Amino acid sequence: MDRAELVDQLRKILVDDLFVAVPPEEIQPQDELGSKLGLDSIGIIELATIVSDRYHIKADENDVSDGHFATLDKVCDLIIARRGAARADPAATAAAAP
C-alpha cells in the first residue's frame, strides 16, 4: 500500500468511524485533527485504537501525547514506520498482534 492509499483510508476512518463532519476529499494530510477537523481527545484515542487494530501496529496514548496523531501526515508516518519495523523484526509483529 502506498502513502496516498493510506491517506485515503485514514480519511474514510475519520468520516465513517469518527464522524468528522468534513467531506473526505476536503481533508488534507497536514490538517490538524483537533483544531481543524474537530476531534477531541477521546476521538484521537479512538483513532489510535482503530489504527492499531486495522494496521496491526502498536499505537497507544503515549503515541498520542508524543504528537503522532496530530495530523494525517503524522499518523501515516507512524504507520509506515511501525509496519517497516515489524517487517524487519517479525517478533515485534507477534507482540503487537491482539
Task: Summarize the SSE layout with pairings.
Blueprint: H1 3-17, H2 41-55, H3 61-65, H4 72-88, H5 90-96
Helix pairs in contact: 1-4, 4-5
How is this structure best described in words?
The protein is mainly alpha-helical. Helices cover 60% and strands 0% of the residues. The protein starts with a helix and ends with a helix. The mean pLDDT is 91.
Instruction: Please outline the major beta sheet.
Output: none
Overall mean pLDDT score?
91
The topology string of helices and strands comes to: HHHHH
Shape: globular
Q: Specify the oligomeric state.
A: single chain
Q: Which runs of at least 5 residues are low in confidence (pLDDT < 50)?
A: none
Helix tally equals 5
* Range of helix content: 55-70%
Radius of gyration: 13 Å
Distance between the termini: 22 Å
Number of strands: 0
* Strand content bin: under 5%
User: Which class best fits the helix and strand makeup?
Assistant: mainly alpha
Features:
98 residues, mainly alpha
Short account of what is shown:
The protein is mainly α and 98 residues long. The chain is 60% helix and 0% strand.
